[in-house]
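EI: anyone free to look at a 308-residue chain?
SC: sure, send it
EI:
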Amino acid sequence: MRGVDDLISLAPPVAFATPAEVPAHLDDQQLRAVLLSGRPVGERGTIEVDGVTCPTITAGAGRELLCVHGLGHDAWDWAPLFVRCSSQARLTAIDLPGFGLSSRPARRWDLAILVDAVLAAAHRCTAPPVVVASSLGGHVALLAALEEPRAFARLVLSAPGGLIDVPATMQAMLRAYYGVDAMVQRSEADIVGNSRRIFATAGLAIDDALAARKLAVHRSTQARAFAVPFADVVDDVFRHVVRSQLPELRVPTVIVSGARDVVVPPEACAQAARQVGARFVSLEGVGHCPHLEVPDRFADIVREAFAA
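SC: here you go
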């Protein structure tokens, strides 16, 4: 089995990003301190999945951790976790196919190619990794673990998708939101407003920042090329609810939920944890992205998981 080192270029390690490149939603003092010091957060590499090049960032030494981002996000989500855990573990974050800096899939963009990417990344670890995944990433991680449980040591799932049947009204809102023809004609204010309606928890500053980040799709010169298959992924999420399959899960699991999450209801996460005998962690005052909202508390949960 190939190790993560096989994915890393022979070029000298480079910084994950310069301070100027830090996305606005990553307002994390610990991360900024590392970047400003000139020290690299991680080494760049790639994974090839069905003709798609998926960039990776790897850092640290010790227990293998594989980090999987959510819908509309990228490997950047895990930079705060990198600077908190890389002294105790070896972390790899991946841009899933079609997200971040990955290339665009040539075939239909669906959950299957995302599952293939997670499995490929897991196979290239030196040992079955602990997977830390958020939202859509959690949905993909569940599907991958159900398909090939021996590829993973443990799952830490933050508000994973696939636990509920999304109401028809929400499905319609999401399809309209990600419809490229409509998106490219909307004003920025309209896009942010719709993002807040769908994703944001009132009163949480991070949610406003994440809603504003959705403008990256609107502003991108590649928006039309990417958003059409991107909408296919949304439809695939609706079709692949995993709730009924949870009793078949054979990988030790921790499920984390923000008590104020409006995207994946905390009660759905609690019920899923009961179904699989998983540890359930509820974080008061937190929304859909605990790893970004309360990175210190989230890092503690992850450390407990990889120490088990």
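EI: Confidence is low (pLDDT under 50) at residues 1-13.
SC: 👍
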